[in-house]
Design goal:
Layout: H1 2-5, H2 9-17, H3 28-34, H4 51-79, H5 84-102, H6 111-127, H7 135-152
Helix pairs in contact: 3-4, 4-5, 4-6, 5-7, 6-7
Length: 164
C-alpha cells in the first residue's frame, strides 16, 4: 500500500498511531454495522450471535471493505501520478494479500472478483457523463480498470494469481 500510494513514513506512522494496524475485538452487533445492515436486524436480535449469520455478516463486510480498499488504492495511485501500467501490478498484489486475509485457506473471493465488484460499485458514479470528476480522472480510472482486469485475469507481465 505504501508503494502504490507513495505514502511517506510519516503518513504510515499516523495510520499506525490512529490504530488502523492494530487488532480489535469485533462484537456481532458491530459486524451488522460494518456490513451496512444489508442483512437487516434479525428477530430476535440474539440471532446476531449465530455462527451462520456471523459468517454472512463477515463476508458482506469483507466485500464492502475490499471494494473500498481498491477504490482507495486506485485513487491514491492516481493522486500520486502513477500510471496504470505502473500501479496496477502493486494494487493487484495488495488485493491478493487482502483476499488471503479474508478467509485464509478457503479462497472464497479472488482479486478479480473484487475488481469486478469495484467496477460496478464505484465507477458508475465517477464515469457517468454528469459526474464532477475531471476528464483526466475519468481517463485514469478507465485505464486502471482495464489494466487491473488484464493483470488479474493473468494476461501479460505482472499477472497475479488467484488467492489460495
Amino acid at each position: 500500500m505504501r508503494a502504490v500510494g507513495r505514502f511517506s513514513g510519516e503518513v504510515m506512522a499516523i495510520a499506525d498511531a490512529l490504530g488502523y494496524f492494530a487488532d480489535h475485538d469485533v462484537p456481532a452487533a458491530s459486524l451488522l454495522l460494518r456490513s451496512e445492515g444489508i442483512t437487516g436486524v434479525p428477530e430476535p436480535p440474539q440471532r446476531l450471535e449465530e455462527p451462520a449469520l456471523v459468517r454472512r455478516l463477515c463476508r458482506i463486510g469483507a466485500d464492502l471493505q475490499l471494494t473500498r480498499l481498491l477504490q482507495a488504492l486506485v485513487t491514491a495511485a492516481l493522486a500520486a501520478g502513477a500510471e496504470s501500467g505502473e500501479g496496477a501490478v502493486g494494487i493487484a498484489e495488495v488485493l491478493r494479500v487482502a483476499c488471503g486475509l479474508v478467509e485464509p485457506g478457503r479462497a472464497r473471493i479472488t482479486p478479480a472478483e473484487v475488481q469486478r465488484m469495484w467496477r460496478v460499485a464505484h465507477l458508475p458514479a465517477i464515469l457517468r457523463p454528469a459526474s464532477d470528476a475531471p476528464d483526466w480522472g475519468k481517463t485514469g480510472y478507465r485505464a486502471y480498470d482495464a489494466e487491473l482486469e488484464r493483470v488479474l485475469q493473468g494476461e501479460g507481465p505482472g499477472a497475479v494469481r488467484a488467492c489460495v
